[in-house]
From TrEMBL:
UniProt KW Amino-acid biosynthesis keyword: yes
Cited NCBIfam families: PRK00258.1-3 (NF001311)
Single GO molecular function: NADP binding
Pathway entry: Metabolic intermediate biosynthesis; chorismate biosynthesis; chorismate from D-erythrose 4-phosphate and phosphoenolpyruvate: step 4/7
GO (cellular component) term, any one: cytosol
UniProt-recorded name of the protein: Shikimate dehydrogenase
Keyword annotations from UniProtKB, A to Z: Amino-acid biosynthesis, Aromatic amino acid biosynthesis
Biological processes per GO annotation: aromatic amino acid family biosynthetic process; chorismate biosynthetic process; shikimate metabolic process
Plastid in keyword set: no
SDH C-terminal domain mapped to chain residues: 257-283
Entries under Pfam families matching the protein: SDH_C, Shikimate_dh_N
Domain (Shikimate dehydrogenase substrate binding N-terminal) ranges: 8-93
């Protein structure tokens, strides 16, 4: 008998590995009667998030929220965590008696993935993109001590991202050796130099973005002192990851970020410490199965 229900919402959502992670956590914690499923909402012609949430029964305890529903999740909540407020988006909704609480565990996912890779204090960083995930990366980098962050963008850095940088005390147009100010993504030589000059590079760009050697990035760039985290976890390694690794970087897969943000969601929804090892094993198995099927 189901006693607690949770799930992931977004559009598209079929590719999401959140069910693998959350179900593994429930099994490891001995939480019988708990379920976790995918629900495609928020796209064109699809049910919107407020309508979906309004129809949920009292057995629903939480939702993982992906694009394009993260801002709607923030708006419908009766309370918002400080971290979600800073980011301006929520990836988690948790049920309480008077409504839903909006939270965002993405910054913790970025921070913990970098810490696990051996990153300590960060002096200078480069973030590819400037949307909600980039703000999560910015928040995580600030907590790792970074005070100089440059952005590689298609045209200009989003104003809300610059506002967050100011709130966090981060210089958002970092002038460091290798680049000054922001970098345009259509200038692969400049992006290559900026990556080489950074201690940490976080790519928040979607799968399929033109990146790496195939997009003209410098194959002779020296990234031996750089850690790259690519938020994409499907079809690994990405072209960007292949280029960075060939140039000597320490590369962190997006699956590490996915694991740690999901651990935060499990703790918020269940009240238990996330069984990280069990979740990691389940994720690794799922990724290997995808590779075999592709």
């Amino acid at each position: 008998m189901l006693t607690h229900r949770a799930g992931v919402v977004g559009s598209p959502v079929e590719h999401s590995l959140s069910p693998v992670l959350h179900r593994a956590a429930y099994d490891a914690l001995g939480l019988t009667g708990w379920s976790y499923d995918r629900f495609r909402i928020g796209g064109e012609g699809e049910l919107d998030l407020p309508t979906f949430v309004e129809g949920l029964g009292r057995d629903w305890v939480g939702l993982s929220v992906t694009m394009p529903d993260k801002e709607d999740a923030l708006a419908l909540a009766v309370a918002v965590t400080e971290q979600a407020r800073r980011i301006g988006a929520a990836n988690t909704l948790v049920r309480r008696e008077d409504g839903w609480v909006a939270a965002n565990t993405d910054p913790d996912g970025v921070r913990d993935a970098l810490l696990e890779a051996g990153v300590g204090d960060v002096r200078r960083a480069l973030v590819l993109g400037s949307g909600a995930t980039a703000r999560s990366a910015l928040d995580a980098l600030a907590r790792l001590g970074c005070r100089h962050v440059g952005f590689a963008v298609r045209s200009r850095v989003r104003p809300e991202t610059l506002d967050l940088a100011e709130e966090l005390g981060v210089r958002a147009t970092a002038q460091v050796e290798g680049w000054e100010g922001d970098v345009l993504l259509d200038d692969p030589a400049a992006v290559s130099r900026a990556c080489a000059a950074a201690d940490v590079v976080v790519s928040t760009l979607p799968a399929g973005a033109p990146l790496g050697e195939e997009a003209g990035f410098d194959p002779s760039a020296d990234l031996s002192r750089t850690v790259l985290l690519d938020a994409v976890y499907a079809d690994w390694p990405t072209p960007l990851a292949r280029w960075a690794e060939a140039c000597g970087a320490t590369v962190v897969p997006g699956s590490a970020m996915l694991l740690h943000q999901a651990a935060g969601q499990v703790e918020l929804m269940t009240g238990h410490t996330a069984p990280l090892d069990a979740m990691r094993r389940a994720l690794d198995d799922a990724l290997r199965n995808r590779e075999r099927c592709s």
